[in-house]
Amino acid sequence: MSKWSVVHTVTFLQDAYMIKSYLESAGIETLIPDEFTAQVNNFYTTAIGGVRLMVRTEDLESGVALLKEGGYINPENSVTDEEILIVGADSSTDMTCCPFCGSANIGKRNTPGMAMVILYFLLSALFPIFRSANKCFDCGKIWKFKKIRQ
Ligand SMILES: [Zn+2]
């Protein structure tokens, strides 16, 4: 199975579709994992940190280059090379620090308002895939914890 990386994040689904067709016309396969949430209600996308547009990791470099060329992303913007890693966690795992460098300087990737937090928990109960990722501000890694049953 090939890995997918976030090539760009937009606020509205229609923007994601525009970029999707742009990349696909250049032969790069894309994925919009938040597509259905965004279709249900555009406001949900704020809770899940925008609409993510993903490409295969091997296409990431050319995808980013195309988006810069097309003016979709600022060439100075380096946050587009984010890759979400899945980290196994059991009851002894310390989820308050970075599993890669041990730094406690981590945060959720998005900081939604309280209404969004409630909405987001309701949604994530239905669709666990929408759970947001953690980010380390020291080493820049982004990951999700996956509970391991004991
Ligand atoms: Zn770290």
From TrEMBL:
<keyword id="KW-0472">Membrane</keyword>
<dbReference type="InterPro" id="IPR011322">
    <property type="entry name" value="N-reg_PII-like_a/b"/>
</dbReference>
<dbReference type="InterPro" id="IPR018551">
    <property type="entry name" value="DUF2007"/>
</dbReference>
<feature type="domain" description="DUF2007">
    <location>
        <begin position="16"/>
        <end position="69"/>
    </location>
</feature>
<dbReference type="Pfam" id="PF09413">
    <property type="entry name" value="DUF2007"/>
</dbReference>
<feature type="transmembrane region" description="Helical">
    <location>
        <begin position="113"/>
        <end position="130"/>
    </location>
</feature>
<protein>
    <recommendedName>
        <fullName>DUF2007 domain-containing protein</fullName>
    </recommendedName>
</protein>
<keyword id="KW-1133">Transmembrane helix</keyword>
<keyword id="KW-0812">Transmembrane</keyword>
